[in-house]
Amino acid sequence: MAKQSTSETAANTESVLLDYTQRLARHVQGRRAIVIHLSRLRPDNRRSPHIRIAANTFESLVKQFDGQIFLLQNADMVFVCKSASIRVIDEAITRLRYLFGDDPLAAELEEDTPDRFATWYDLERDYKEFLAFVEAVHAEQEKLRKRLAQIAGPIVHEELQPMDPAALVELIAAIERADLSNVMRRQAICTLADDEPPKPVFRELYISIPDLRDAIMPHRDITADRWLFQYLTQVLDKRLLSLLRKNDDQAIAHSFSLNLNLSTVLSQEFLQFDQTLRATARGSIVIELEKIDVFGDLGAYIFARDFLQQRGYRVCLDDVSAVALLLLDRDELGLDLIKMFWTEELGATADSEQHAALGAAIERNGPARIILARCDSEEAVSFGRSMGFRLFQGRYIDRLVNTPGVKPIARSAG
């Protein structure tokens, strides 16, 4: 099922890059940073498709060399990696020069001529210079943001139009034609141990609803009508399965989870997806089912669960609240995993009696079989660790995974 994440509107890229760079201060060994000055290209070469292709050029290096890519507001691209040779990086930059071959900026370098296309930083030697560059970029973006705010005055948000059947038909037609790989996202589910970085166990793959709306139907609230949205998620499920059938990215060939409608699991499209998988891959794939699907038709759930588990998949019950967890019995439902959502109320209002009841439910269902999701803050992780959770998902976890050397906060007492 497509995800409507409340945690996808993160800070602007310049702020994220500054935070990342500051955290790199003690982890510069073997790292390089390269700034590709796409902002200096001619305007016709700075369009979004060109920028996306440029970023894709470095995607394989991201996976291979613990890399990060940052696309700045001015169209410049920053690539940071570890232990990659100059030759490997230079090959990627050369491919970009060919891509923008008709632009004077990408012309071959002459001897003793500064390269205006790419700036290299050896972070063991040039960390202070790179930090100064990032700070300047961030300051410039903040200045621009404040200037625009002064010019625009108070922001008036355009009210989104509600979804209706005619608009849904139009949206589905657009989805059938669109390349949804641009709005497919992945988020790690990790184990956390004291004094160790988080270890990804698998990654959830999903289609981002906010990004889909912005790309195809920005003036509509496509989640406003529950039943129209439910139908839309079924369409998106099948498109996602189709994308994965054709996928040749080894990074998502196994060890991932999919949040699917129960009707999708019982569909021909899922059978076709299943037939493309190696038997060994199925054992690393988790199928997440919404609780409204499971309890709305227990007979269909039991049939689907047995089919999935016989094929080797693991089954997870998604979108469980703390109150619901008190009533659930994982073994009785035949579930492999449960995903419980963190809310601020858990940390702010729970008294010792509530904690004790929740702790007993966690112990009964298996601490290693429950994922605490939507962990977007240290508070969420601190609470989860104090309650015995071992699996975590959320923006704060993403930050730990993507920032080298940063360790999780210590387990809280209590």
What does this entry look like structurally?
The protein has 414 residues and is α/β, with parallel strands linked by helices. The chain has 2 domains: 13-152, 2-Layer Sandwich (Alpha-Beta Plaits), CATH 3.30.70; 162-402, Alpha-Beta Barrel (TIM Barrel). The protein is 47% helix and 17% strand. It has 19 helices and 14 strands. The strands form 3 sheets. The protein has an 8-stranded mixed β-barrel, surrounded by 4 helices. Strands 2-3-1-4 form a 4-stranded antiparallel sheet, sandwiched between helices. Helix 8 packs parallel to helix 10 (268-275). It is globular. The relative contact order is 0.10. Residues 5-11 have low confidence and may be disordered.
Tell me the distance between the termini.
Answer: 37 Å
Enumerate how many helices there are, as a single number: 19
What is the rounded Rg?
A: 24 Å
In the CATH scheme, the class of the largest domain would be: Alpha Beta
CATH superfamily of the largest domain: EAL domain
CATH architecture of the largest domain: Alpha-Beta Barrel
Described by the principal axes of the CA atoms, the overall outline is: globular
Helix content: 40-55%
CATH topology of the largest domain: TIM Barrel
Residues in β-strands, percent? 15-25%
- Summing up helix and strand content along with how strands pair, one would put the structural category as alpha/beta
Overall domain count: 2
Outline the biggest β-sheet.
8 strands, mixed, barrel
Strand line-up in the sheet with most strands:
6-7-9-10-11-12-13-14
Q: How many strand elements?
A: 14
Unreliable sequence segments: 5-11
Chain-averaged pLDDT: 83
